[in-house]
Structures are given as C-alpha cells and as structure tokens.
Design brief:
The protein contains 21 helices and no strands. By secondary structure, it is mostly helical. The chain folds into 3 domains: 2-54, no CATH class; 58-148 and 203-280, no CATH class; 153-173 and 295-418, no CATH class. The chain starts with a helix and ends with a helix.
Length: 419
C-alpha cells in the first residue's frame, strides 16, 4: 500500500518538476509497478502494468481524436471559431461565463458526464485558435469540468437507492426531487467557482492548437468529404453516449470511421498515427494501472474506515462534507467513480445510523461527490484537460483543488437543504 502510494507521488513530482517530457512520467510509473511487484498475486505483471493499452475507453478516445483531427479541417469548425470570436468581441469574461453555462445546460439535456460528451466539448474548444480576448487555455479547464455538472439525476438516484437498500435502509418514501435540488445547488457552487477562478487560469496556447491566429481558415475539402467527416463525428459521439446500450461496437466505431477518413484522404497516415499515439493518449494508458494498484492495495478502504471512526461524533453537515471529500478524492486517485461510491457511501450510511441521523441526504451527496473531484490527471476527463490545456501541475491545481472543495461544500449544503 505504501509503495503504491509512493509510486503515485513520485509520478506527480516528476510531472510537476517537468524533468521528463509530457506523458513520460506515467509510463515510468507503470514500469515501477512491475519492479515493486504492485499487482495482485494472480495477475500477470506485464499485463497488469500496461492494462491501459487494452482499455476500451482509451482506444475509443484515441480513435475519436483522429476523427476530431479530420473535423478540424472542415468549414463547420470555421463556423464554431467564428461564434467563439463573436463571444470574445462582446467581452471575454462574459463570453466565458456564457460558455460555462451553456455546457452545463447541454450536459443536463444530454444526460451528463458521458465520455462522448466531454470529448466533444474539449474537441470543439481545441479548434479555437489563440485569442488574447478569450484565451483557449482559460476555456479548456472550466468547460471540461463543466461536463460533470450537473450529474445524471437518474443514474445517481438509482445508485444511491441501491446502496441504501443493500445497507438495509428502507427507501420506499425516497423521491428524485431532493436529488435534483442537491445537484442544482452543487451546480451553483461550480458556477460560482468558475466565476472566481477565471483570474487564476493561465493565458497561453493549448497543446493541440495548430495555429495562433485570429483568422478563420477556410476549408479546402470538397463538400462531400466535409459531409462524410461531420457524419463520422456525429456518429462517433452518439455511439459513445450510448455505449452501454450498443455494447462493444460503440467503442470501435470511432476506429472504423478513422479508417474511413484515412481511406478518402481527409487525414493521412502520419496525422492518424500522431493522434493515436499522442502524449495525451500515452498518459491515459499509463495512469490507469497506477490507479488500479492504489485501489487494489486497499488504501481507500483503510482511509474510509479510519475516517468513519474519527467522524462518528460529527454533526450531520460536517459528516456529509467530510465523506463528500473522501468519496471524490477516492474517485480522483483511482479513476473509479462508481466504485468509490460503493466504498464510501455504505460507510457514511453506517455512521449516520450510529448517530441516529437519516442517512439519505449524506448518502445522496456522497454519491454525487464521486464526480466532484478531478484534481489529479489520472482519469479520462482530468487527463484530457491537463494534456490538451498544456497546463503545468501548479496551474492545474490552482483551479482544481479549490473546485474540489467548493463542489463538496455545496453538495453538503444541498443535501442539508433538500433532505
């Protein structure tokens, strides 16, 4: 357990110190998992250390980046850029707040926090050239994390009720309305932080930008190729959003479309190869086994039980706030949102029952908190935000650590108000 935590800290220090190229520290950390034997007894060491290279989500995102590279060549991208420039001309900060609000509303309308949604949003942001009035580096992080606000009401309601039932607590009178209220109050907290944290965001070009010009470059693709490219993008996003319903086919759809675009010469082989094996993809592949090792070591369960013992005499609000912090921190360290809820929500239920407190509110807030972290780039969304935004770890933490605390604070407030 200590060795697994040490490897994680060593990786973070290397990223912060910038002594190795971007994407290299997680690769070294994966190698150290084998050196220190940080894998289950029945696991193949090499397969465990490089499990990220066979992860379905990683390859889905990697091939989608090829489709996205093709989409950036179309006139539709030019129109998106034009709209962004209009927002910038109206006033950079006002345009920024409007974009954050629009992403949050779109997140609510599409079901929230799906891989397809946040990859689409970040992909669109990546098409915007650098502009001093509204620097793209001030958009990637807030808009990326806005994709987890609001969380999916139905999914979190079902997850929380299921955990409550498993703990032996009757949920016949529990409705979805207070869950919605809690979520909306949590969204208010994130929007307030986006307002305040804007000044802390850096002003520089992002990693995936190919130009730093205010001019909108016209597309030279034939119209039929543009239509095929847009259709590939839309179909890829729809597939990612309905991955659970479509099954394994959804994960390979972007790959099929990437080869189609290669075949009709919208992208060439070098562009495709660079997208598939970019430093961002490499980082996503290598942080997965590091997170798995920390989870498999029992670290999160140990911390949860220790805090449950220490927090047994806390007032309900502070108990809820502490477990929101723990659940989201666990999700951040392990990259397992739902698993983190399954670890910590039963503990907060037990603590509430021991205090004679109704556990539904604290359990609801803790369940939602599984999507309120992201202060380390060791999961899909945080890793993409960190990589595409070209942030240093210091810049990343300036925004994400206060965001994490404020998210949990407002979820705890929401639970107290709604329940």
């Amino acid at each position: 357990m200590i060795l697994a935590l040490g490897v994680l800290i060593f990786m973070i220090v290397l990223i912060m110190a910038d002594v190795l190229p971007f994407g290299a520290p997680p690769l070294l950390a994966s190698l150290l998992l084998v050196v220190f034997q940080l894998y289950p007894a029945d696991a193949d060491p090499i397969a465990y250390a490089f499990a990220g290279f066979t992860d379905s989500n990683v390859w889905m995102i990697a091939f989608f980046m090829v489709v996205l590279a093709a989409f950036q060549k179309t006139s539709f991208t030019a129109r998106v850029r034009s709209q962004m420039f209009r927002l910038a001309e109206r006033g950079g900060f006002k345009g920024y707040l409007l974009l954050v609000l629009l992403v949050m509303v779109a997140c609510a309308l599409t079901g929230g926090h799906s891989t397809g949604f946040y990859v689409l949003i970040l992909g669109l942001v990546a098409t915007i050239p650098y502009d001093k009035k509204l620097p793209t580096s001030k958009l990637v992080m807030p808009l990326g994390f806005a994709c987890f606000h609001p969380v999916n009401f139905a999914v979190n309601f079902g997850l929380c009720v299921g955990i409550l039932n498993s703990a032996g607590f009757a949920t016949d009178g529990v409705s979805m309305t207070p869950f919605i209220i809690t979520t909306l109050i949590g969204c208010v907290g994130y929007f307030i932080w986006s307002f305040v944290g804007y000044r802390l965001l850096p002003d520089h070009a992002i990693a995936v930008q190919q130009e730093q010009s205010d001019e909108v470059v016209a597309s030279d693709l034939p119209q039929w190729k543009e239509l095929v490219t847009v259709a590939c993008l839309v179909a890829s996003v729809v597939g990612m959003m309905f991955a659970k319903q479509l099954g394994d086919v959804a994960y390979i759809l972007p790959g099929i479309f990437a080869f189609l675009l290669l075949g009709i010469k919208v992208v060439d082989w070098q562009e495709m190869r660079n997208s598939l094996f970019s430093p961002v993809v490499l980082m996503m592949c290598c942080v997965i086994p590091v997170a798995n090792a920390l989870s498999d070591s029992g670290f999160t369960a140990l911390v949860g039980n220790m805090v449950a013992d220490a927090a047994s005499s806390m007032p309900p609000f502070w108990l809820t706030f502490v477990f929101c912090l723990l659940t989201s921190a666990c999700a951040t360290f392990t990259g397992a949102n739902f698993a983190s809820a399954y670890i910590f929500v039963p503990i907060v239920i037990a603590a509430c029952l021991a205090l004679g407190v109704n556990p539904v509110g604290p359990a609801a807030a803790s369940t939602m908190a599984a999507f309120a972290g992201g202060f380390l780039p060791i999961d899909g969304l945080p890793a993409l935000v960190y990589g595409w935004g070209n942030y240093s770890m210091k810049e990343f933490w300036k925004f994400t650590i206060p965001m994490w605390i404020i998210n949990c604070l407002f979820l705890a407030i929401g639970a107290m108000v709604a329940f």
